[in-house]
Amino acid sequence: MAEELVDEKPLDEEPAELTDEDLDRIADTAIGALQDILKYFEVGEVTIDEYEGDEGELILDITGDDLAVLIGRHGKTLDALQFLVSAITVRTIGFRYPVIVDVEGYKSRQREKLESIARSSANRAASQNRSIKLRPMTPYERRIVHICLRDDDRVETASEGEGSARHVVILPR
């Protein structure tokens, strides 16, 4: 859908080994894009901390005063912000590299909730020997569930549905 706008020209595969210079270029590009976008939100002084996530992704965490406008209702504005920063970064560096935009740890807290839901749903699926369908989720949220349960030998996960109705199903093995 909207992602098709980004994919007008073929993108190169991510290089097998990224150098520190490559990672710095990715971070500088993503931070620059984020700072440019933030100028349009009247949020005052902000700090952008960068660090590497558990799955090797670049996480940019914005901190400051009164940043609720950047999160939006149910994180929708934050999702859009992340999409824009990712699209600009991909277009600039020429290959896909996972960039996560967070605001004062909001996504981190959401991730913990999703992982808890995933584990309890996996327990239910295994103990009741039936599949458990989770609520519709964004691609980012579904990825968290899949990653959380990938090492659980009792269950497997699959995504089903189309568009905004796409959801994860946890199946007993």
Key words describing this protein structure:
173 residues, alpha+beta, GMP Synthetase, Chain A, domain 3, Ribosomal Protein S8, Chain: A, domain 1, 3-stranded mixed β-sheet, 5 helices, R3H_KhpB, RNA binding, KhpB
Can you describe what's shown?
By secondary structure, this protein is an alpha+beta fold. The protein has 5 helices and 6 strands; from the N terminus they run H-E-E-H-H-E-H-E-H-E-E. It has helices at about 20-40, 70, 75-95, 105-130, 140-150; strands spanning about 45-50, 60-65, 100-105, 130-135, 155-160, 165-170. Helix 1 (about 20-40) crosses helix 3 (about 75-95) and helix 4 crosses helix 5. The strands form 2 sheets. It has a 3-stranded mixed sheet. It has a 3-stranded antiparallel sheet with strand order 4-6-5. The radius of gyration is 18 Å and the shape is globular. Helices cover about 45% and strands about 20% of the residues.
Poorly predicted sequence stretches spanning 5 or more consecutive residues: 1-10
Strand content: 15-25%
Order of helices and strands: HEEHHEHEHEE
Structural class: alpha+beta
Shape: globular
Q: How many helices in DSSP terms?
A: 5
Could you say what the CATH architecture of the largest domain is?
2-Layer Sandwich
Estimated radius of gyration: 18 Å
In short:
Helices cover 43% and strands 21% of the residues. By secondary structure, the chain is of the alpha+beta class.
Q: Could you give the topology of this structure?
A:
Layout lengths: L19 H19 L7 E7 L5 E7 L3 H4 L4 H18 L5 E5 L2 H23 L3 E5 L2 H11 L5 E6 L6 E6 L1
Parallel strand pairs: 2-3
Antiparallel strand pairs: 1-2, 4-6, 5-6
Helix pairs in contact: 1-3, 4-5
